[in-house]
Design a protein that fits this description.
6-stranded parallel β-sheet; Rossmann fold; Arc Repressor Mutant, subunit A; Helicase, Ruva Protein, domain 3; alpha/beta; two-stranded antiparallel ribbon
């Protein structure tokens, strides 16, 4: 047996084949416990990110809570790729914002022990931007593109060949003297994330070998996430407070962690540092977040449908104007949870308020002029 053969690292359950000089140095750093290189190509994507939020991101798949079936399948794919010494197949992540798509992309690089490069589709303005990135990737690098549905057609077409053949088509010269040169690329893993799967072209979707759909988290899963985050932040979180926060987090870890940090502020001022159920109730009331996780803006949308349009149906553009919001924000951020939680219905004729919306806001069903007295 050669020296080091068969040795397992904390993130490896199989042996990786010999790599080039850079790959060996990288593997040695991983074995020593260092985090894989994270080449951030779009500073705005990470530079403006809240450092506290970043600190709460899990680094390993075992630390990623929730989405159990998704994790089970992904762990199999990762192990198989490691044991074969190959790049993981391209991964397509889709689902509402705040559910952990970017976090999971980072976990993939950590578990595989490879480099991690990050960008977003709006940052890729010209084909040369993509070419500059792809010509610098090392073997088995995880290359993450956020908001992949916003790729420009020319860049998307260049990406097709890179994903399938690991080659890059580049045109040299102009006019009659122009010629196409194919530049070989090392095998890499493209991870594309989107909140609008319907806007991603079929040819691009078909080139992803692994498709993972994120769903909203259950309350019990959010409680586990809150307890983990509280431990990292050094907070004393009572079980009742965790349950109340989880119910008000819209099934979204990002929202749960944001509320948890705000409760820490309220606890420091009102609760002697301990986040209790009473502190959470006071904090949520001050933030105007109700027991269903609806914020004031969400309730304004429902009231507008009920009071101004008799419960609907009302078109998205009309509704957006009535609440002073853009159609994109209404459809991408506000509506998904309102529909999933049963407050709003999307019909061919427009949006309609569901019976739960009447009940929650204190209206008699079908009568927007009469409020129930509690």
């Amino acid at each position: 047996m050669k020296g080091g053969e068969g040795r397992k690292t904390p993130i490896q359950s199989g042996n990786l084949p010999p790599a080039e000089a850079d790959g060996k140095a990288h593997t040695a750093a991983v074995e020593a416990g260092a985090e894989p290189s994270r080449g951030i190509l779009d500073p705005g994507l990470r530079g403006a990110e809240d450092e506290k939020e970043s600190a709460l991101r899990p680094k390993r798949l075992s630390e990623f809570l929730g989405q159990d079936r998704l994790k089970e399948n992904l762990s199999i794919f990762i192990r198989a790729a490691r044991e074969r010494g190959e790049a993981l197949d391209h991964v397509f992540l889709l689902g509402p914002p705040g559910l952990g798509k970017t976090t999971l992309a980072g976990i993939l690089s950590w578990e595989l022990g490879v480099d991690f490069k990050v960008t977003s589709a709006p940052a890729l303005e010209k084909p040369k931007d993509l070419a500059g990135i792809l010509t610098t990737v090392t073997e088995r690098t995880v290359f993450f593109i956020d908001e992949i549905h916003r790729l420009k057609p020319a860049i998307e077409e260049m990406l097709y060949i890179a994903m399938e053949d690991f080659e890059l088509d580049w045109i040299i010269g102009q006019g009659p003297a122009a010629r196409t040169v194919r530049i070989p690329l090392p095998p890499f893993t493209l991870v594309g994330a989107t909140t609008k799967a319907g806007m991603v072209s079929s040819p691009l979707v078909s080139r992803f070998g692994i498709s993972l759909r994120f769903g909203f988290y259950e309350v019990r899963e959010i409680i586990l996430i809150l307890n983990r985050s509280a431990t990292i932040l050094g907070m004393d979180l009572s079980p009742g407070a965790a349950s109340l926060l989880a119910a008000s987090s819209r099934g979204t870890p990002r929202v749960a962690n944001r509320l948890l940090r705000r409760m820490r502020d309220f606890a420091q001022v009102f609760g002697k540092g301990r986040v209790t159920e009473a502190v959470v109730k006071e904090g949520l009331e001050r933030l105007e977040v109700d027991r269903y996780g609806l914020e004031r803006h969400d309730r304004d949308i429902l009231r507008s449908v009920i009071e101004k349009y008799g419960g609907g149906p009302v078109g998205a553009e009309t509704l957006a104007i009535s609440v002073g919001e853009s159609v994109e924000t209404l459809e991408d951020y506000c509506e998904p949870y309102l529909i999933q939680a049963g407050f709003l219905q999307r019909t061919p004729r427009g949006r309609m308020a569901a019976p739960l919306a009447y009940e929650h806001l204190g209206y008699r069903t079908g009568n927007a002029d009469e409020r129930l007295l509690f």
